[in-house]
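Researcher: I'm preparing a figure for a lab meeting and need a structural model of a single chain. I don't have an experimental structure, so a prediction will have to do for now. The sequence is pasted below. Please return the structure as C-alpha cells so I can convert it later.
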Amino acid sequence: MSDEGAGTFRRILVPTDFGDSARRATDVAVDFAKRDDAVVTLVHAFELPFDSYSGFMSTPQEVVTQLEEAARGQLASELAELRKRLPSAQSLLLVGYPATEIVVAIQTTRADLVIMGTHGRRGLSRFLVGSVAERVLRESRVPVLTVK
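Model: Understood. Here is the structure written out cell by cell.
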C-alpha cells in the first residue's frame, strides 16, 4: 500500500521575527520543503508606532520609512541565507499586527502549512505580551507547527 502524496505540503509559510526560534522554524521548514519539493515563503510583519492626540493618529513618514527599510533589509538577508539551501524560497513583508497579517498571508499565499517559532512564554508574561503563535494557531485554517 502506497502513501505517496499523503502528508505532503506544497506551500509552506514561515513567519519570522528574525529571532532564534524563527531560525529554528526555518530549519524545520527547509527539511519539509526538501522532502515534499515545496516552496517556502518567509513572512515578516511589523507594526507601526502611532502617536495619538485628540483622536488623531500619526506616524512621521521618516520613522515609517526607516522601519520599513530596516525590516526589508533584514528580511532580504534572511531570504539570501535561505536561498543557499532552497533557491526557490520567497519572502513577503507586511505592515500591521503580526498575527492578523500572518493569518491573511496564509490565505493570500495559499499556504498549506505554517511553521513558526514560539518564545515559549508562560503565565503572566504570556498574558501581558500576548502570543502571536497562539493566535495564528487559533485562526489558521491550515496546520501550524510551532518550534521552540
